[in-house]
Design brief:
Blueprint lengths: L27 H11 L4 H6 L2 H13 L3 H15 L15
Helix pairs in contact: 1-4, 3-4
The chain binds zinc ion (ZN).
């Protein structure tokens, strides 16, 4: 994998040896914003690895002509920004 800050290939290391940035958690802010902006397609959930929830959100969007998925995505995005879930689908704590 590549360091998210400097782009250097750091293999399986979590802490980048070049810039010492922490590459462990996914960004809570990114996930929340993705979900608020594109939650009807479950984008924030897919980003976090919660594929089943993402698929359900797409299904909700399809079956309610967009309204259900958009509302669910908005609420879900706000929840993510406020700390739910704490971890991504791999159990890695999200970075604030
Ligand atoms: Zn780095």
């Amino acid at each position: 994998m590549y360091c998210r800050e400097c782009g250097k290939d750091i293999g399986n290391l979590k802490i980048c040896p070049a810039c010492s940035c922490d590459n462990r958690g996914k960004s809570r802010l990114t996930a929340g914003l993705l979900q608020i902006l594109a939650g009807a397609a479950g984008v924030g959930r897919f980003y976090l690895g919660y594929k089943l929830i993402g698929v359900l959100q797409i299904a909700a969007t399809v079956f309610t002509c967009g309204i259900g998925g958009a509302i669910w995505g908005l609420i879900d995005g706000i929840l993510i920004l406020n700390g739910t879930p704490k971890n991504d689908a791999d159990g890695v704590e999200l970075k604030d």
